[in-house]
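Reviewers of the previous submission asked for a worked example of the structure-prediction workflow described in the proposal, so we include one complete record here. The input consisted solely of the amino acid sequence. No template or homolog information was supplied to the procedure at any stage.
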Amino acid sequence: MAISAKDVKELRERTGAGMMDCKKALTANDGDMQKAIDWLREKGIAKAAKKAGRTAADGAVAAYISKDGKTGVLLEVNCETDFTANNENFRALEKKVIEYIAEAKPADLDALNDGVIDGKKVSELVTEATATIGEKISIRRFVTYETSGKLTTYIHMGGKIGVLVDMTGGSDELGKDIAMQIAAANPMAVDRDGVDASELEHEKEILRKQALEEGKPAKIVEKMVAGRINKFYKEVCLVEQIFVKDSEKTVKDILGGEKVVRFARYQLGEGIEKKETDFAAEVAAQAGM
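From that input alone, the workflow returned the following structure tokens.
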């Protein structure tokens, strides 16, 4: 099948492999991006697979903590352009919705859309905002934490990345450091127990094939995999990561006696593919050219 330059470029950005290797990987896997990433990693060509996905939708991620500090919310609201994301009406809607979530604690998006703010359903407020602003507005996702410990939030670049952290305690500074670590390093879980079993097995399989591709004897492959899995854990487990503000310490070191109970990290538009517009072609079409 024909492989597009756009797909080759994306694969290169996600793996760090060369252009020709990326094209070869896509061709060998019928254009399947994830299989191509695995293929490159098995061959030892790819440095890593960036799992965040393409950030292809606009809008903003917002965070909120109740006045008593016991309820925290992380919310993503999408729109079509970054210009609209800074619109006063858009931000006002986002603020109303996130405060409502903290108070009413809806179970899911359906319950949220059926919720009532100022006498109107949330879904109606979103529809009105769409009509007023002139772009499609949608509430994509949210998470609510209730705790007897300490909640901290961090918003990066005006809403491109948002983090909500639930800790057993600690100072405001410690909470902010942990939230910024999560924003920057994108851990998969707090510790090894939290790593998804299917993700772990997938990584092991990649490492097995990688070792065999390197010509290692089958009898020592499993020992090699075990060693490399430890490196994988240090990359994806929050407490084992190198602290971004001090390379001599791990996150566990700076936590001291405190613990991270759970965290949520939203990257704006991750997993959503935004339609690319050819403005020249669009203008030409409207002009009848």
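Confidence is low (pLDDT under 50) at residues 51-56. We consider this example representative of the routine output the project will generate in years two and three.
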